[in-house]
Amino acid sequence: MTLIISKMTRDDAIRLAEGKPRVQCNCCKRSEKPKKSGIGADEWLIAAHANGWRRLQSEHFDFDCVCPDCVDAFVRPVRVAV
Ligand SMILES: [Zn+2]
Predict the structure, then answer these.
(1) How much distance in Å is there from the Cα of 35 to the middle of ligand 1?
(2) Residue 10 alpha carbon to ligand 1 centre in Å
(3) 82 pLDDT band (50/70/90 cuts)?
(4) Structural domain total, the chain
(5) pLDDT tens-digit profile of 27-65?
(6) Apex CA 45: angle with CA 61 and CA 51, to 5°?
(7) Is residue 80 domain-resident?
(8) Does residue 38 lie in a domain region?
(9) What residues make up the domain containing 9?
(10) End-to-end CA distance of the chain
(11) From the CA of 73, how far away is ligand 1's center (Å)?
(12) How many A from CA of 52 to the centre of ligand 1?
């Protein structure tokens, strides 16, 4: 399986909830939003990237927005039965 880890795009990854930007993991569904108000979508995207949120793509799936824990789980070497 080819795994491509890339930066998220703002339009795919950031959702506005009650006027605040939010990222939600496509895998475990956990979401994070800023505790302070006045944070823009662009700033929140930068913060999410700094924390390890990424886009993950392979032949089998395309996740626009994945949290650091799930990125770790995907990147961890997978044992394949031959
Ligand atoms: Zn996750």
Answers:
(1) 19
(2) 18
(3) low
(4) 1
(5) 999 999 999 889 999 999 999 999 999 999 999 999 999
(6) 80
(7) no
(8) yes
(9) 4-75
(10) 14
(11) 9
(12) 11
